[in-house]
């Protein structure tokens, strides 16, 4: 196998293992075994678990990071920025269910895992910097850390439970559920994050 093929196999299997067993319980040895690669060969490509996680998540989330970066780049209205970003993120997580699983597992593992996942995936998008700037400008009334936690909760919990919700309400498909959730979230944000009109 060529080095590029070994690297690709390791990244694919790492993503699968992170989504099934979490970050804490996934080692280079586990990934190498799953990929059918010698551990020494895996270590020659990825020196440690952090490098493997970095490259795996950066590659897997690059499309959404780029899309959100583009969506927030020129946006000055906080609701429009959140609307665009959350719609993009929702669709990405529907298309890439394993990424939603990694986020949920990282949340349950604790702040260290969640920080690793966020720092290697969505933080580079510029979304959180734009929220902080809007807060400083008085365009939003909730501090960015609290708002970020609220948005993360609204997105991650709905994606973890999406199959159960669709089964509980047979007349509702995934797209309908996400649209209802999204509209409710925006309505709540319109009434809760904007400063009062003077």
What is the strand and helix layout of this fold?
Blueprint: H1 3-21, H2 28-35, H3 39-45, H4 49-73, H5 78-95, H6 97-109, H7 111-120, H8 127-136, H9 144-160, H10 162-168, H11 174-192
Structure write-up:
The protein has helices at residues 3-21, 28-35, 39-45, 49-73, 78-95, 97-109, 111-120, 127-136, 144-160, 162-168, 174-192. Helix content is 77%, strand content 0%. It has a single domain, classed as Orthogonal Bundle (Tetracycline Repressor, domain 2). By secondary structure, the chain is mainly α. α1 crosses α2, α1 crosses α4 and α5 crosses α6.
Order of helices and strands: HHHHHHHHHHH
The 3D shape can be described as: globular
Number of strands: 0
CATH superfamily annotation: Tetracycline Repressor, domain 2
Q: How many structural domains?
A: 1
Please describe the biggest sheet, giving its number of strands, its sense, and whether it closes into a barrel.
Answer: none
Please state the second-level CATH architecture. Orthogonal Bundle
CATH topology: Tetracycline Repressor, domain 2
How much helix, percentage-wise, in residues? over 70%
Q: State the secondary-structure class.
A: mainly alpha
CATH level 1 name: Mainly Alpha
pLDDT < 50 runs, ≥5 residues: none
CA radius of gyration is 19 Å
Mean pLDDT, to the nearest integer, reads 87
How much of the residues is beta strand, in percent? under 5%
| Cα-to-Cα separation, first versus last residue | 67 Å
Please count the helical segments: 11
């Amino acid at each position: 196998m060529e080095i590029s093929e070994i690297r690709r196999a390791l990244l694919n299997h790492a993503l699968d293992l992170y989504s099934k067993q979490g970050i804490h319980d996934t080692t280079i040895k586990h990934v190498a075994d799953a990929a059918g690669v010698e551990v020494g060969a895996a270590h020659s490509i990825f020196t440690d678990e952090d490098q493997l996680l970095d490259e795996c998540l950066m590659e897997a989330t690059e499309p959404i990071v780029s899309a959100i970066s583009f969506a927030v780049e020129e946006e000055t209205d906080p609701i429009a920025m959140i609307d665009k970003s959350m719609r993009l993120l929702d669709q990405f997580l529907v298309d890439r269910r394993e990424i939603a699983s990694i986020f949920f597992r990282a949340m349950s593992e604790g702040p260290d895992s969640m920080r690793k996942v966020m720092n290697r995936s969505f933080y580079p998008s510029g979304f959180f910097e734009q929220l902080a700037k809007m807060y400083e400008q008085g365009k939003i009334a909730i501090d960015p850390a609290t708002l970020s936690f609220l948005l993360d909760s609204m997105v991650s919990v709905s994606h973890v439970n999406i199959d159960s919700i669709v089964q509980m309400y047979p007349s509702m498909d995934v797209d309908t559920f996400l649209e209802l959730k999204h509209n409710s979230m925006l309505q709540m944000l319109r009434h809760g994050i904007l400063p009062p009109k003077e």
